[in-house]
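Posting for a labmate who doesn't have an account.
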Amino acid sequence: MIKERYVPISGGELYVKLVGEHNGKPTIVMDAGYGDYSKAWDSVIEDLSLLSNVLIYDRAGLGKSGNSCNPRTSTEMVKELKQLLIEAKIAPPYLLVGHSFGGVNMRMFATEFEQEVCGLILVDSTPEEYRERFLPTMSQDFQQAYNKQFIYEGNYDEFMESLKQLKETKRPLDVPLIVLSAGKKAHYSKESQDLWHDMQREMLEISSDGEWVIAENSAHYIQRDEPEVVVRAVRKLIGSG
C-alpha cells in the first residue's frame, strides 16, 4: 500500500507518503536532516514497510511541500508534524526515526508527546551542544562551509535556536531509545571522531532504556551506507512497541 497526499496545516500544506501494510504495529514516522526531504529514506523505506506502516514527509519548503510562514525552528516543525498526523488520521503509538537535524525534531516531539511515542531512533543526530563543543574542534574551512549551508530551510540563527530549544526542553524520557553513530565521518580527525561518538553516546542520558550503536562503515548518511543498521534498530523497537 502506498498513499500520497497533501495535508493542510496552519500556514501551508505538507506532502506526505504512507507506505506499508497496517498490521497493528506502531507507525514508523521518519524525519530527514536539514535541507533534506522524504527521498533521504529511499534506501530503507522498502524494508521498513515490511515491518509496519511508514510515514515519510517533506517539511515545509522542501521537496513537494509548500512554504510556511511559520519560523523554521524545531518548535514549529514539531507543531506542524503533530498537525499532519492529526489531519492524516495517523493514530499513535509512533516509532520516531530522525536523521541529523531530524533527530532534534524527533527528540522534541518525543518530549512533548511522550505518551504517544513507543520508541525513538536517532540516526547520527545533531547534539544540542554542537556549536559550543564540537564545531570549534574542526578546521576553519569546515566551520565556514558548515555556516554557509543554511540556505535551504531556515537560516543559521533559526537552526541554532532549534538546538537551544532542544537543550531547554531536555528531560528524562520513559521511551526506548537507540542512538546510531556514524563511524567514518568525512573530514574528521581521530579526535573529532572520538568526540562525536562521545556526544552521541551522551544522548542515551535522556532515556531509561537506551542503546548506542556505532555504524563503523558509515559516513553521516547511515541509512545509505549501512541501511541494515537502521532497519535492525527499527525491527528491535517495533517488536517491543
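Reply:
Got it, the C-alpha cells are right above this. The beta strands are 2-9, 12-19, 27-31, 54-57, 94-99, 117-123, 177-182, 210-215.
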